Amino acid sequence: LSSAQAEAIGLRHRGHYRNLANRFAREYFTSHQAEWYLRLRREHDNIRAAIEFCLGHPGEADAALDIAAPLWPWWHAGHLHEGLRYLVRSLDLAPGPTRSRGYGLFAASNLAIRLSEFDRALALLAESGELAERLGDELLAARVKQCQGHALLHSGHPAEAVPLLEAARDDARRLGQPRDEWRDVNLLCLAMMFLGDPCAEDLGRQAVQLAEEHGAEA
Fold first, then answer.
1. Where does the chain have alpha helices with state H?
2. Whether 88 contacts 111, CB under 8 Å
3. What is the pLDDT of residues 40-80, one digit of tens each?
4. C-alpha closest to that of 74 among 137, 16, 126, 17
5. How many CB atoms lie within 10 A of CB 20?
């Protein structure tokens, strides 16, 4: 293969996995959830190859974020360190104020929280929130609140987490984002449990109902 042919194949491969990541994000909170996890496990090496191609080619770092960021729930399934490494490398190469960077910062913060890197997560979220405001992206703004609440909750500050999670839940509901609403309700339930608030039980039922309505295993 000539270098031009190899480049063209790499770009097509990258495009395919960017589309796959977007499809996963759309279909994750559905009855196809388990199928997606099996598919991504099979595709793991191809996902790595697509991201590495982007990271090795000037101007492709946003595309790396477009692959790595939507897959954040899958990185949680045993690939936290790998997912965070890819996101951080991509963010380093894509400093522009783009939508891709905004969601990449959110995804990286999400993984950092699971690794108990709370200060790092909150720093990433601060920039993601600024980008959401600059771009007028209400969904990203809602996800930033969700993750800020998540970080506060898991670092031992449930009372401070509650208003952020309530605002994120209300935004998710208004924007028609059931998976985000489910996550907000779940985190609120946990916060209320820590605070000894009896409404935790009702929030738990709401989370189960949301998952059942959408066929998700949650």
1. 3-27, 33-42, 44-55, 61-68, 72-75, 80-93, 99-114, 118-135, 138-154, 158-174, 178-195, 199-213
2. no
3. 999 999 999 999 999 999 999 999 999 999 999 999 999 99
4. 17
5. 20
